[in-house]
Amino acid sequence: MNLKKLENKELLILGIGREGADSFAFFRKIFPKKTLAIADQKTLSTLDDSLKKTLEKDKNIKLILGKNYLAYLKNYDVIVKSPGIKYENIKKFLKKGALVTSQTQLFFENCPAKIIGITGTKGKSTTSSLIYHILKTNKFRAYLLGNIEVPSLSFLLKIKKKDHIVYELSSHQLQFLEKSPNLAIFLNIYPEHLDYYQSFKQYFQAKANIARYQKKADYFIFNPKFSLIKNLAQKSKAKKILIDSKKIKKIINQNKFLEKITHPDNLSAVFETAKILKISLEKTIKGLKSFKPLEHRLEFVGQYQKIKFYDDSIATIPEATIFALDSLGESVETLIAGGFDRGIEFTKISKKIPKTKIKNLILFPSSGQKIWAGIPIEQKKKLNRFFVNDMASAIKIAFEKTSPNKICLLSCASPSFGIFKNFKERGDQFKKFVKQYGS
């Protein structure tokens, strides 16, 4: 939708988190006198102080806050919905003919620049950051936006046609998207967010929008290891390029520092993107040398009391933890795992643990019990198992049980919710108590 068409519409921003606040700031700039509505189950007192002051000062705003906020949706023509709010939860409250859109949809429809979109269950933040870093080191005017926690709408006011947009896309941002990026990257697909989607199929269908609306002049970089993604590629009109970790292994062998950056599949996507943008192999490798890994992604915290500690709190599915174990090898002696149970299978990680040199298994509820239950009885005898309810207890046990020169790895194979606010808080607590007990 052209943004000018919104000027005479009754407009409501649904959700006042980071993205909702950015949407409000954007619409206030382009419509300085228009009455804007914001609806959220939060109350004014629970909002960030700076945001609260901004909203209180605004004379042309209608705040709809508290338990009954959805009942007012029927009064609005256009709803700009935040990604985490389920459409199923709001549709019965909508006015007939109302348009439900999102910040991502509005950005894609009105962005003058080329968009590089990246999705996948795991690895999309690092891959997006790597591509952005290579663009910047090669003097491209570029922006890194989206699920990487940088809301996009406000950037529309300064983006030019020749710019390059690197946009990390979650399934929630993709779910109702009706325009695909010019260069789409689909890294992988595993069962995830099954508390939000009705099925794995529905989760994949949301992700599939990254390529569904591409044109012949576009590019689709995809991972053929996943049959769903491969089938999606076969239907795509775009120029198709395979993610090929075998092809990239030669480059990794010649540049050993690449092993510690990310999974070979993700690196393959990065190198293929650089090639499309006519950045030479030499310049791509040079750019990657100065890349600093993101927090909570196989992050080396330090060596304390001769024990090496790694924070991989981002690992919210078993496959991510398995990758971490494979990357760090036989030095991992203590694994801290478990967390919120979204109803996914833990068979893979339960089978993987006995094949490693892990001696100590420290487990959070409630998926920790499932991981332990899946390990064969004979293999359980070789493990020291500890169930804990907080990070301080986990780290205390880790220092007591881990041998000198071995690794303690936080890689939970599960989301953080329940004990922790999010994966960042989980990782931050891990680092905090490691340093506290280590000193």
Question: Tell me about the biggest sheet?
Answer: 6 strands, parallel
The SS-based structural class is alpha/beta
Mean pLDDT score: 94
Q: Report the CATH topology name of the largest domain.
A: UDP-N-acetylmuramoyl-L-alanine:D-glutamate ligase
Rg over CA atoms, rounded to whole Å, is 23 Å
The CATH class of the largest domain is identified as Alpha Beta
Distance between the termini: 57 Å
Provide the low-confidence segments as ranges. Answer: none
Tally of structural domains: 3
Helical region count? 17
In order across it, which strands form the biggest sheet? 7-8-6-9-10-11
Number of distinct beta strands: 17
Shape: globular
Helix content: 25-40%
Strand content: 15-25%
So, CATH architecture of the largest domain? 3-Layer(aba) Sandwich
Query: CATH homologous superfamily of the largest domain, by name?
Result: Mur-like, catalytic domain
